[in-house]
Amino acid sequence: MASDFKASGAVKLGRLTGLIGAAALGVCLLGGAAVAEPGDSHIKIVTPPDKSVLEGPLAAVTVRLPTDRPDEIQIFLNRRRVRLPKRQYRQYMACFDGVELASGKNEIRVVALKGGKPVDESTSTVFLHSELSSDGARAPEGFSGYTFHEQTHERVCLPCHQLDFSKTAESETRAENSPCYQCHKKMLTTYANVHGPAAVGGCLGCHDRGAKPKLSVPKPEGKLCNSCHENSWPSMPFGHGPTAAGSCAICHDPHASNQPYFLRKSAADLCAGCHEEILAKPHVIVGFSNNAHPVRKWPDPYHPGKEFTCVSCHNPHAGLTPAFLQNYDGISPISNFCITCHAMR
Ligand code: HEC
Ligand code: HEC
Ligand code: HEC
Ligand code: HEC
Ligand code: HEC
Ligand code: HEC
Ligand code: HEC
Ligand code: HEC
User: 84-100: per-residue pLDDT in tens?
Assistant: First the structure.
């Protein structure tokens, strides 16, 4: 298939597209009518492939179109229709950025329509991995990890997209100038809070071009994070499991999130993903009525404006005591810890 592409004049046109915006790319290709097409009478999802395991919530859905082009395409994620911009489908490939998956299993169904009637469809069932939820922790039998950025997969896109980043600048000042933007822009436009270096297109500052797999971030990522975020945690006597291991991205999305601090879940739900047992039994105190200390749903007396959660009492990163209690030295009586809140009310 790739050799067909190489033989066509469209390859050269495609190569020009490095930093050209999406619209210009479209025009350039429509002009170059000589794109050699893989002839097929059926629609087929190319990415993400069936039974693949993905690590990020936003999937790029790319679809090879039948030679008899549909005049409309609909995408259904878990049977709900995804909103798509109105488009004409003249090329053999249709690309959609940022279909937002839920953790665990997801069904992506792409339907081709002609004259308003469905004529063909293709389905891909994928698994979004997440350490923070029981449905996302383990992929079902038959599913396997998927790395898009390797030669065999990228080859299919090369007639129209630039994927050689060896000569591009490592850092940009505008996200639009990043060579990643054309395919990953929804990562920066979907969520309310975007992490500084991602927001300015500094993708290649964290994603190593020379790495294997291509563009991966060396694990654990903590060293990288700490290169910009000076903090005193490593010198504290007690480090919290995942933080001490440098697995910051388990809790923080490195790119963007609707939560403050780019958390993958609200502070109230984040911890329970790994410490379910805390919610199952009384915590901190057992009064005579067997009432536990509340762990959520109150205003936090110590941090005005914030919800009372696990991190009102525990530092999520490290501390001076084995349970990383906030603002407590571990030497004075524990009541000194309690009164940080209770004396104030
Ligand atoms: C601050 C460092 C950093 C920056 C800047 C950054 N990334 Fe990432 N990225 C990571 C890390 C760390 C992971 C691995 C996350 C994990 O372990 O789940 C990752 C994972 C990804 C993934 C796969 C999983 C996911 O979360 O979707 C994609 C795609 C990605 N990055 C694209 C980008 C693009 C595009 C940019 C620029 C707009 C960018 N990254 C900027 C650190 C970064
Ligand atoms: C026949 C040419 C062609 C091929 C082959 C092709 N693309 Fe595209 N792609 C385009 C054009 C043109 C655009 C931008 C215009 C548009 O919105 O359709 C685009 C846009 C995209 C976008 C952004 C879509 C959006 O919603 O903003 C993604 C993601 C993408 N391509 C991924 C891929 C991947 C991955 C492959 C290979 C599996 C691929 N493309 C192969 C032509 C192509
Ligand atoms: C031609 C479109 C395209 C371009 C350009 C592109 N990506 Fe991707 N990338 C994808 C697709 C498709 C996936 C598979 C995941 C998905 O469905 O979104 C992916 C996945 C990733 C992943 C997860 C690991 C993997 O290989 O599957 C990382 C990390 C990533 N991209 C980083 C980047 C960075 C950094 C850039 C810019 C230097 C970039 N990408 C440019 C299409 C693209
Ligand atoms: C290239 C430097 C750089 C790297 C690497 C980096 N960050 Fe950041 N980070 C920043 C900047 C600048 C800000 C402040 C702007 C903002 O809020 O996005 C920030 C803000 C944050 C914040 C919000 C802090 C606050 O007080 O609101 C968190 C959380 C964060 N980063 C986590 C991480 C994690 C986790 C990693 C590793 C995956 C990481 N950062 C890697 C530069 C970096
Ligand atoms: C177990 C989950 C978890 C892990 C792992 C984690 N964090 Fe955090 N982080 C949080 C939470 C929760 C907050 C918000 C705390 C709050 O609301 O007071 C936070 C806040 C932050 C902040 C902003 C406030 C501050 O304390 O400076 C930065 C920066 C940050 N984390 C960076 C990191 C880095 C770097 C790593 C890896 C070395 C990391 N985090 C690992 C949960 C985590
Ligand atoms: C990715 C899984 C994960 C997440 C998410 C997580 N933890 Fe942990 N936590 C651990 C591990 C692993 C340990 C250390 C081993 C153990 O307790 O057996 C630990 C230990 C602790 C301890 C010390 C336990 C002791 O025995 O002294 C506290 C307190 C704690 N976590 C609180 C939190 C809080 C608060 C959050 C949310 C901000 C959180 N954890 C989120 C995995 C996690
Ligand atoms: C009112 C403050 C407070 C809140 C809120 C709180 N904790 Fe704790 N937590 C404590 C104290 C005090 C200890 C006991 C510390 C010690 O013995 O050194 C503790 C101990 C722990 C431990 C280790 C011992 C054990 O019981 O397993 C874990 C894990 C833990 N907390 C997790 C959580 C999680 C998860 C949440 C949120 C669901 C939470 N805590 C909410 C104060 C709190
Ligand atoms: C970060 C703030 C904070 C810390 C620290 C804290 N508490 Fe609380 N406590 C609260 C909040 C919020 C409530 C719920 C509102 C209320 O009852 O006024 C509460 C409620 C209570 C209650 C009433 C429980 C009920 O169900 O009636 C007791 C008793 C209590 N705390 C004891 C303690 C003890 C003992 C400590 C120290 C080990 C402690 N608290 C540390 C914030 C805190």
Answer: 999 999 999 999 999 99
Contact 112, 69 (CB under 8 A): no
Q: What is the CATH number of domain 2-163?
A: 2.60.40.10
Question: What angle (nearest 5°) sits at the alpha carbon of residue 204, between those of residues 201 and 208?
Answer: 160
Mind listing the pLDDT tens digit for each residue in 151-183?
999 999 999 999 999 888 777 788 999 999 999
Q: Ligand 8, residue 291: give the atom nearest the CA.
A: 26
- For 6-19, what is each residue's pLDDT tens digit? 333 333 333 334 33
Ligand 4 proximity of 224 Cβ (cutoff 6 Å): yes
Measured in Å, residue 322 CA sits from the centre of ligand 4 at 26
Task: Report the DSSP beta bridge partners of residue 256.
Answer: 194
Residue 30: how many other CB atoms lie within 10 Å = 12
Nearest CA to ligand 7 atom 10: 284
Q: Domain residues of the chain, as ranges?
A: 2-163, 236-345
For a ligand 4 pocket test, name from 178, 207, 223, 229 the mutation site with the most ligand atoms within 8 angstroms of its C-beta: 229
Rg, the chain, Cα only: 25
Neighbouring-strand partners of residue 81: 76
Average pLDDT over residues 128-147: 94
Instruction: List phi, psi (to 5°) of 151.
Output: -50, -50
Encode pLDDT of 23-38 as tens digits: 334 333 333 333 445 6
Distance separating alpha carbons of residues 43 and 39, to the nearest angstrom = 11
Read off the DSSP letter of residue 288: T
- Tell me how far apart the terminal alpha carbons of the chain are, to the nearest angstrom: 71
Question: What's residue 2's pLDDT?
Answer: 34
Q: 205 near 180, Cβ under 8 Å?
A: no
Does residue 73 contact residue 109 with C-beta atoms inside 8 Å? no
